[in-house]
Amino acid sequence: MWLEIRLKPAEIVPCGTIFVGVHNTCPNGTIFVFYASPSPRSSWIDIISVIDSNQIVGLRKSRSSSSSSWTTRAQELLRRRLILEDDFTWKIPTTTTTTTTTTSSSLEDEAEDGKKLLMLRYVGGVDLSFSKDDPSMACAALVVLDLQADATLNVVYHDFTLTHLHIPYIPGFLAFREAPVLLDLLDKMKRDSNPFYPQVHAKLMVPFVGFGLACHLGVMADLPTIGIGKNLHHVDGLTQSGVRKLLEAKENCAEDLITLTGCSGRVWGAALRSTRGSLKPVFISVGHRISLDTAIKVVKLTCKYRVPEPIRQADIRSRSFLQKNQGVIKKECD
DNA sequence: GCGACAG
DNA sequence: ATCTTGTCGC
């Protein structure tokens, strides 16, 4: 539900559009406010808390003390709930190189306290594709892959939503644009009690930054999440060319992996050359309820190609679904 | 201060 | 993100 206010040039400079409303990326008791300025650089997003119907508190984004990036109050509220350590009940399969038919490559294992530990099996992935003709039209995809012992990475579930996105892309605020429809897809799957729902022994992979989409979705859906980026969002002194240089320097090292530490000393994630042939790395960050080390292990397990398979499949399938169906949608609108 | 910036 | 053509290599 949205209230859209179009401002006249006299009211604010530069003039733009303010959206106010409830939003499924909002913590309870809060309202989403989004100002889309003609210049994306000066757009902002925030969530305000509601005291009663007439009073509101809190406003505007604030400068994060730990880095050079901007965060909103919304992101700060969600960050309080973020868990940065492993917090799940499953076990990670051994890497493919060591899976020499361990006769009982068992799907269960005994934990120290006697509890059964399930092997990680269902890994989710999400992505959005956009229409060329109508940039506001998008197809969101959720896929779940089966991470069997033979590592075939079969897609066992997929679902799509065609939608219109009224919130523009602003670096640092991607989650406000893409999280709502992805949360809907997850909710639908959970409501249906789908056996492949990536809840207990699974993960969802999404692009990231700071408190980015992966963290945002992870907290909102209460799922362990990993952030995957094909490009690096430049924060805290980190640049893609800088990372490239570091990787070149490590050219002959065994591990094609570097930790991304910003000028502030904060560790933002890792850059990994996931395929032997790829010069360009993928960028990994923790989302929710997972450590960076574990996140990297899971990414390695799901990399048939440069981009981890859950993300790749979500990307491919969302694009083809959009191309098959946007014509149908257009006809309906006539 | 300005510019850089996931998709 | 989106649009392309060809091209190289297994």
Automatic annotation (TrEMBL):
This is Endonuclease V. GO terms for biological process: DNA repair. Keywords: Cytoplasm, Endonuclease, Hydrolase, Nuclease. GO terms for cellular component: cytoplasm; nucleolus. It is found in: Cytoplasm. GO terms for molecular function: RNA endonuclease activity producing 5'-phosphomonoesters, hydrolytic mechanism; single-stranded RNA binding. It comes from the Eukaryota. InterPro entries: Endonuclease-V (IPR007581). Pfam families: Endonuclease_5. Its main location: cytoplasm.
